[in-house]
Amino acid sequence: MQQIINFVIRNKTFLLFLFLFSIALALTIQSHSYHRSKFINSANGITGGVYSFSNSVDKYFGLEKENELLSEENKRLREALFNLNSSVNNSFIDTSYSDQTYRVITAEVYKNSYSLTNNYLTINKGKNDSIKQDFGVITSKGIVGIIDNTSGNYATVLSILNKKSRINAKLKASNHIGSLIWNGDSPEIVQLIDVSKFAPVKVGDTIVTGGQSAIFPKGIGIGSIDSFETDISGDTYTIQVRLFNDMTNIGTIYIIEHQDRAEIIDLENSNNE
Amino acid sequence: MNSFLGINGIRFVALLLVQVIICSNINFLGYINPYIYIIFIFLFPIRDNRMVLLLSSFLLGMLIDMFLDSGGVHAAASVLLAYARPVLLKTSFGMLYEHQSIKFNNTEIGSLFTYISFGTLIHHLVLFSLEVFNISSILLILKKTLFSSIFTIILCILIIILFSRNKK
User: Number of structural domains, chain A?
Assistant: First the structure.
């Protein structure tokens, strides 16, 4: 017993080092697995406070660009609205029943990273605004990612520039689907894998969300085809997609909630049983 | 003891804030960022307890991880650097370390450079290996380590020189 105590006292620095290092390693390994609730993330009061302060200074430098984006989007929405009015007869809308499937919430990006291999964004909406895990996040140009962790007033977003991200996507021209992943190289290019070899793939074609996952609605823009090749087995295409979004410059985002998501997931789970 | 707590406490908070607000958003050439918060570990007083150094570097790394959403990579790298510090001090300062009489304010610039460079390289190598976490991307790890280290070393030495001359 005496010897054990002596050993501990003699090597206390090394033991403390081992202890702290293994905690850090455990947290690292845990952070590499998808959607495990983490203790260490930037959706909390301290980091949120600091980032909100730095954002309040920082955002003035991007105002001009932000305005341009907004007016561009306004223009597009107005066009869509005017074209819609002519085809829908307003008198038949029953206001007691809302069949709105998607709810949209705007939020501001407090922190954005794109140079790591696993990138996250921090935004200024959280549980208090009914934001939950697995809501989709987009900008006016295209998709950004999926909500990961939430706290009272903040949430982190798993960016599409993250090796853990897998998003259902399809070709706009046909209905061939694939999975959108990122290989960690460039923040402008993501990869669409597992596209059937029968798909009509052309450089310059548009890739949109597939709408099969109950996270994103169908048809939100992702990017255009930069180049493509068949994979080793020759059965599927691997497509390099150039993103519509400039992921290095994101100011305001929209969070999309699928109102029937719980119902869809319940249904799918009951099928699996 | 009080001034020790004061100086190191201020340094801790200041470096943390500068790191997360400014230095992690530089993204020079797309991916090169300096990690200057390790100055805290470099300049920690030598005569003081190593346990305190280990614990405070762990806390600093953990807070950085929290801000950058990086799991535990900064904590691991910082703790390793803090543990390896005596060896680094011995190799770069030699006799001065044996006599426990190093003053970072007025050491030779050569020794300081060796000390900072080796420390930064160790820290960044661990940091990027854990961050990429894929042995097949070893070239990416080495590339990131090399370029970020150069950036960090230059900034660290500039900051140390700038602030230590003021105090005299």
Answer: 1
